[in-house]
Amino acid sequence: MDYVNARFFEEMRSVPENREMLQKMQAQVDAFMQSFSDSPERISRWGHYYFCEEDGGRLIFDLSSPHAHRCEVCGKVFQSEILDGVWTYFYRNRAVVMGLVSAAVYRACRQQKYLDYAKQILEFYADTYAQYPLHNKENGVYDSLETMAWGCGKMMPQGLNESIVAIRFAQTVEMLKPDLEPALLDKIYRKLYREMFRLLAPQVRNVHNISVWNLSAIGVMGLQMQDPEMIDFTFHSRYNISVQLREGVTADYFWYEGSIHYNFFLLEGASYLLLFSHLYGWDFGEQNRSILENMLLNAYALAFDNDYFPNPNDGWPNLNLKTFGYIYHTVGRVFGQESPIGNLVKNIEANPCTRTILPLSEPYYLDNRYCLERLLFNIDWDYSRFTPVPRSSYNYPRSNYAMLRSGKWNAFVKYGLNGRSHAHPDIMNVELTYDGKPVSRDLSNAGYRSRLCNEWHRRTLAHNTVVCNGTDIPSCAPGETDFFDPQHIRVHNSGVYEGVDYFRSLAITDTGFSDVFQVRSEQRGVFDYVFHFERGVKIDLPEGLLPGALDYRENGYEHILECWQLPAQGSVVLRASLEGAPMTITLPLEDGMALFLLKTMDNPVNSYRTSILIRGTGRELTYRMHIGFPANKAKSF
């Protein structure tokens, strides 16, 4: 089986739309390769530095500006050695991707210069690989593999990124293998692949998404070059790929770290290993194949009706199924057009929503519409012939997720964690949509080195849960389900704070969304129930608002932009609208509770949200909220 679809050459030349895409690809490769220049003297730095300190916006990677880095949101220009190193990381990644694209262009048009471009990239990095400094994302530099800290890269800022470019090198070689001289293939194997193997193998030390990438890179290189040591390490070492998938994926078929982004990031690495195993006739393992297939099926099922994802824990905001279409295409190459995965590929492609772009190590897309994998693998599929896949309410108790669906409502709840890795302190967090429009979403976060990532996005206060005494939730424990049906769920989590248990009941019906949040504490405390509303939700400011004060000055409270208190008792009804449709927010207050309206930061922070905070003091408290639309006035958008 060829890596490239058997009809790729014919389809790229005969279909007008494909010819237009080919011309764009040629122009991009020509423009980049005319000035390609790299050196081992330029050290790469971690991509998570490349975010604005003021608003969390991504800095713009500009090929012509290696020493000035502009924020895409506020326009501020930053300069530093670290940011120059991140520019180098992006440049190097672009070079490797352009080599991959050049190989695809060569397979489509057979013009010699595109073969030469791809060979130039491969040979340059093979010839220079030994000269790159051994360093990690914390900016430490090491003399040898024996003394290095975990996580080191050479070309790239960490072993994870080294694994990503290793797989891209292998993809390039796979497309060109019949046209590469034996001497060049031998050089790539000895000076690049074997050295990458020596770097990456010692870093596979536990069950983690990075270990999966390391193993996948080693396995892809090993299968391509038929290196028994590399193949054996991938499939039989202590933390081999089977161990990763069988211990790291829950019984609900989600990656244990509890993040949609990392669930797909893990799938991306493993999908290449699955594909190369398929190409080279290696037994990937039926159980492993089944795990990957079910992960992709369940991720599709968990998405909101508008194909956007809930976003618990670390990741990037506003992710949708189209963001990860290239992974579905890769696995679709293995399972085929008529498989359930093939059908999902077509469902994803048919959705008219705009693809949300990933900010780091992004795959290659043309006009953010067509991924390279669609062209290379599945160019001859009939995308008009597919079966729509309905979604239902689901509870995933081993992953601490649930999604309720009823009519136009979708409600997602995260009620626990399976560990601290990539976790946000937001047990009992809720996300909500109505008629495909976001009512409340998780902000996810900016880059990990961004100030606002750690001062706001990763704080309990930034989520729809309850804050105890102004501090972040310390627990990373799983929760439990007490009741579940398609319109109603009751869950609880014990010891969310020391001596504090949380109970939450969510229901969606034709009349709206209802939330009952109970706190039971061994000690008297101050408990702030928080619910954030999206920009599309406009809340009418009620009469009698007074300037408010929440007293706390850390753990995110310092970033509240405005605070107003409504001196009210009993049941409060706030008038609001969702993109123009009238809605009501009903808040039955217990005695002694105080109601605040806040202006809080979005992600990035050039836009803002309106947030409700209900403060209660005591040992046992119950917070209630109902969101509804007046009868016969709700409309479709």
Mean pLDDT: 96
User: What structural class do you assign from the helix and strand content?
Assistant: alpha+beta
Number of helices: 15
Question: Tally of extended strands?
Answer: 23
CA(first)-CA(last) distance? 47 Å
Question: How would you characterize this protein structure?
Answer:
With 637 residues, the chain is of the alpha+beta class. It has helices spanning 8-14, 16-33, 81-109, 112-128, 159-176, 182-200, 209-225, 228-236, 241-248, 260-279, 286-302, 325-335, 340-350, 372-378, 451-457; strands at 69-70, 77-78, 134-135, 141-142, 365-366, 370-371, 394-396, 401-406, 409-414, 429-434, 437-440, 466-468, 480-485, 488-497, 500-509, 512-533, 537-539, 546-547, 562-566, 571-578, 581-588, 594-601, 608-628.
